[in-house]
């Protein structure tokens, strides 16, 4: 269902059912561990988060509250989200299995497909077309993070609660991603029962 919705919008990665991305939530300069919390890339102190967003606008996985200097690929490894996905989906691995789309911050992994580098697309029109097509359908990931920025204060526990509440709101009201991919979010009851498992 999700892979079909992404393909219908021009995503040409076979089996791609979601998008993974990291975000850095600004925090006040801490009294201790300033160096660990500082992101040289963002040029401020922050807390790093990773989310897997689904085309119906729901957040399939949220992991974070880690030091700002942590790289996205390190966050992916420590989250163990790929292990969880492999256990959930038996057809996840292989050329015809499912995958999630990530940005260039993620290393090469069989389950996370990232764009080809500028060097790789230099003389290869097919790779360039793939990058362009997947870039268009990756935009909903940024919509999800933008929405989280509007509603929350970047304190770790509040951030997690805010994500759950935003997801509950998405169950009751259409969101930008679910409208774009023409998918219904789960009912509130279906969503909340996932926490009982």
Instruction: State the helix count.
Output: 9
- Percentage of residues assigned to helices: 40-55%
Poorly predicted ranges: none
| Fraction in beta strands | 15-25%
Radius of gyration: 17 Å
Strand tally, please?
Answer: 6
Shape, per Cα inertia axes: globular
Mean of the pLDDT scores?
Answer: 79
Q: Structural class, judged by helices and strands?
A: alpha/beta
Terminal CA distance: 22 Å
| Helix and strand run | HEHEEEHHEEHHHHH
Largest sheet: 6 strands, mixed
Task: Describe the structure concisely.
The protein is α/β, with parallel strands linked by helices and 197 residues long. It is built from 9 helices and 6 strands; from the N terminus they run H-E-H-E-E-E-H-H-E-E-H-H-H-H-H.
Structure, explained:
- The protein is α/β, with parallel strands linked by helices and 197 residues long.
- The protein has one domain.
- The protein has nine helices and six strands.
- It has helices spanning 2-8, 34-37, 72-79, 81-88, 118-121, 125-151, 156-172, 176-181, 188-193; strands spanning 16-26, 38-39, 44-53, 59-67, 99-101, 112-113.
- The longest helix is centred in the last third of the chain and has 27 residues, at 125-151.
- The mean pLDDT is 79.
Provide the fold topology.
Blueprint: H1 2-8, E1 16-26, H2 34-37, E2 38-39, E3 44-53, E4 59-67, H3 72-79, H4 81-88, E5 99-101, E6 112-113, H5 118-121, H6 125-151, H7 156-172, H8 176-181, H9 188-193
Parallel strand pairs: 1-5, 5-6
Antiparallel strand pairs: 1-3, 2-3, 3-4
List its salient traits.
globular, 44% helix, 197 residues, 6-stranded mixed sheet, alpha/beta
